[in-house]
Amino acid sequence: MSPKEFTESLGAKVRARRASLSLSQSDLADLAGVSERFVRFVEQGKTTVQLEPLLAVLGTLGLELTLKAAGSQAANSQS
Q1: Would you give the DSSP letter of residue 74?
Q2: pTM above 0.85, yes or no
Q3: Cβ neighbours of residue 22 under 8 Å, at least 6 residues apart?
Q4: Is residue 67 classed as helix, strand or coil in its secondary structure?
Q5: Is the pLDDT of residue 71 over 90?
Q6: Rg of the chain over CA atoms, in angstroms?
Q7: Adjacent-strand bridge partners of 77
Q8: Is residue 78 predicted with pLDDT exceeding 80?
Q9: What is the DSSP letter of 46?
Q10: pLDDT tens track for 44-55
Q11: At 66, which helix (H) or strand (E)?
């Protein structure tokens, strides 16, 4: 998966989760302690977002990133 494909998929999942919680981008930004612009960039699939604020957004939404070995079915490490 390319970085662009990854960030676009991540952005779609963040947007869907935010909507399911009835949060605006501004609400999410306030709760996560990031800028609304950052939330917008995540949802747009920008490939240059920083990890620490991204993790704050994901944590606020009750989401987490999971790492696995390439070709593996099960998660081997979680962040």
Answers
A1: S
A2: no
A3: none
A4: strand
A5: no
A6: 13
A7: 67
A8: no
A9: -
A10: 999 999 999 999
A11: strand 66-67
